[in-house]
Amino acid sequence: MLAITTPSFGAPEVLTIAEVETPRPMPGEVLVRVRATALNRADLLQRRGLYPPPKGATDILGLEMAGEVAEVGEGVGGVANGDRVMALLPGGGYAQYVPVPAGMLMKLPDSMTFAQGAAIPEAFLTAYLNLFPIGRLSPGETVLVHAGASGVGTSAIQLIRLAGARSIVTAGSESKIERCLALGAEAGWNYHDGSFRSFVEEQTAGEGVNVIFDFIGAPYFADNLASLAVDGRLIIIGTMGGTQVEDINLGMLLSRRLEVIGTALRSRSLATKIELTAAFQTFAGDALARGEIAPVIDSVFDWKDVQEAHRYMESNKNVGKIVLAVD
Ligand SMILES: NC(=O)c1ccc[n+]([C@@H]2O[C@H](COP(=O)([O-])OP(=O)(O)OC[C@H]3O[C@@H](n4cnc5c(N)ncnc54)[C@H](OP(=O)(O)O)[C@@H]3O)[C@@H](O)[C@H]2O)c1
């Protein structure tokens, strides 16, 4: 089969389409003919050699895909060749074929294209995991979503709406904020206008937010703690702005009973990911099939243009997901 390989680590130019061995499904797995995959920030880091795949995973990039079942492995029932599916992967999505444990498969709703299916697993499962099992979000609570127009951010805004909770966002431009409002966010703050602290105070009548979805890390840490309500949960999902924090007063963690939680999806066990996939489908499967929530797709690149797609993500211009159509 053909796959996008990384013969060396570095800039987008290292990404090369090459012939590699076609994988076979192990017992309990199905082989999927990939029709679309999507980019994630983790791909950029892995390409640069800064984020090795988990033990046992392929070194081919690609954390999600949608396609058609091409071969059903031993011991798998309820799945047939030709079924349209989508799944989260530990790697291997940038290829024509990928083996997937049967429990990780989600049915691709008939109303959705492969490009839409490829844009769902990583962003929506990350958002679901961190809002509900980890964030314990309740109806009526308020979430501050940083990088609101990101793939994970746009998914979170929609799941928060579906749960009957409120979201407010930060983003780097007015047009990104407009897109977030259209998805259901109640208000947005352009971080180029300064700290978001007074914005959160205004939006919550001084109470603070119950949950913060943070991808930025160190530069936002102090303002995040100051923006949480009593019993608030700060969930650190990414550190795009830096990791080193200095001069933080931990007193408010105690007085306001705050939780600071670091989280990662890729390194979790297969059993946990299967459980998460099932819980997400129970919560959001019907809403996805009815179009009440949908992946936000910024652009679809032919996979031969993967270098350009990586450069585009690095430019921070996307709203929602960048998809690769796989021949
Ligand atoms: N922990 C996990 O399990 C997990 C899983 C999936 C993703 N993630 C992380 O979640 C984050 C979002 O991923 P994604 O794929 O949804 O990203 P994405 O769609 O590429 O969006 C990222 C956006 O973040 C904003 N941004 C980037 N650097 C920034 C900075 N220094 N300060 C403020 N905003 C910045 C940019 O938008 P603006 O124009 O608004 O600045 C950028 O477009 C990444 O950090 C990713 O690694 C973590």
- Portion of residues within helices: 25-40%
What small ligands are held by the chains? NADP nicotinamide-adenine-dinucleotide phosphate
What is the number of helical segments per DSSP (H or I, 4+ residues)? Answer: 10
The structure class reads alpha/beta
Q: Can you describe what's shown?
A:
- The protein has about 325 residues and is an alpha/beta fold.
- It folds into 2 domains: about 1-120 and about 265-325, Alpha-Beta Complex (Quinone Oxidoreductase, Chain A, domain 1); about 125-260, Rossmann fold (3-Layer(aba) Sandwich), CATH 3.40.50.720.
- The protein is about 30% helix and about 25% strand.
- It has 10 helices and 15 strands.
- Strands 3, 4, 5, 6, 7, 14 and 15 form a 7-stranded mixed sheet that branches. It has a 6-stranded parallel sheet with strand order 10-9-8-11-12-13, sandwiched between helices.
- Strand 8, helix 4 and strand 9 form a beta-alpha-beta unit.
- The radius of gyration is 20 Å and the shape is globular.
- The model has no long low-confidence stretch (mean pLDDT about 95).
